[in-house]
Amino acid sequence: MITRHHITLSLICSLIAGLAIVPWDLFLLILLAAGTCIGVILPDIQMKAPKRITALTPAWMITRFARLICVPVICSSYRLIPGIDAPQCDKRLTHSVPGILFMFLIIAGIQYGIVLFLGASPQFASAPLLLAGILLGLCLHLAEDLCTRKGITPLYPFSTLRLSGTIRPCDTRDGRIRQFSIQHGLVLAGFVGLRIAGLISEREITLAALLGLILCTGLMGICSSVKVADDDEPQQVPPGGISGSAA
Q1: Distance of CA 116 to CAs 105, 111, 135, Å?
Q2: Which of 7, 144, 174, 228 has the maximum number of C-beta atoms within 10 A of its C-beta?
Q3: Please, what is the average pLDDT of the chain?
Q4: Neighbours of 50 (CB within 10 A)
Q5: How distant, in Å, are the alpha carbons of 46, 85, 86, 100, 232 from that of 80?
Q6: In degrees rounded to 5, what are phi and psi of residue 116?
Q7: Dihedral-angle region of residue 54 (phi above 0 means left; psi in -120 to 50 means alpha; beta otherwise)
Q8: How far apart are the C-alpha atoms of 141 and 217, rounded to whole Å?
């Protein structure tokens, strides 16, 4: 999907999760949402650099971290496994379950190193929540790109099995992504309504939020007619990237 689609859908999902975890702390809610936005942007290593400073510039800088730091580490790790060939120019590296787990571990390691270097401090008490948001965003990126025609290869480079839907993100005549935003918003509104009405107990809130996220992603998959195919063609990252990071 295009960057703005990723951010819009993931922000709503982060609010569903945040209102279950830290409902009364605005700072922590914003921190979780920020982490989710970072995580949902990271995999798009094919994003093209904006010609001028725009709202997409911070997003492009986030993808450069993945392209210049995470991807070389991922490829070096894969080279240790006999028979595995994973070129750095293949965007399937970051659009797979092993890829997002690698990126999460790299970021977690960097954050842990910073904490060790600077010493334990109350300022770092909320750091795990930022990491949780990043992990949520990474997972949502796969769920959202799963709905597009290019899809994802969830087990790459160990398998070229591809899951893809029927959405063309740049096709303005296709209203399904707008429909997803409405669906997500309704799930969020329903969750908030249940909380305000006191119809779910504190012990049930986390489960309700999880079910809400599953409903959001599940409806996207159903509406996108997801299918399974084999994809052994590399998805090369052009030198200049792809404008808007459509997937």
Answers
A1: 16, 9, 21
A2: 144
A3: 87
A4: 15
A5: 25, 10, 11, 19, 21
A6: -65, -40
A7: beta
A8: 11
Report how far apart, in Å, the C-alpha atoms of 198 and of each of 9, 67, 202, 205 are.
Answer: 26, 45, 9, 10
Question: Based on the number of CB atoms within 10 Å of its own CB, is 156 exposed (0-12), middle (13-18) or buried (19 or more)?
Answer: buried
The 10s digit of each residue's pLDDT in 111-122 is 888 877 776 665
* Residue 46: partners with Cβ closer than 8 Å, 6 or more residues away: 91, 237, 238, 241, 242, 245
Q: How many residues does the chain have?
A: 247
Q: How confident is the model at residue 145 (pLDDT cuts 50, 70, 90)?
A: very high
Helix axis angle, 3-21 relative to 202-223, nearest 10°?
160
Domain locations in the chain? 3-245
pLDDT of residue 242: 54
Q: Residues 91-102: pLDDT tens digits?
A: 899 999 999 999
Instruction: Tell me the H-state helices in 42-174.
Output: 57-65, 71-78, 97-118, 127-145
What is the amino acid identity at position 114?
I
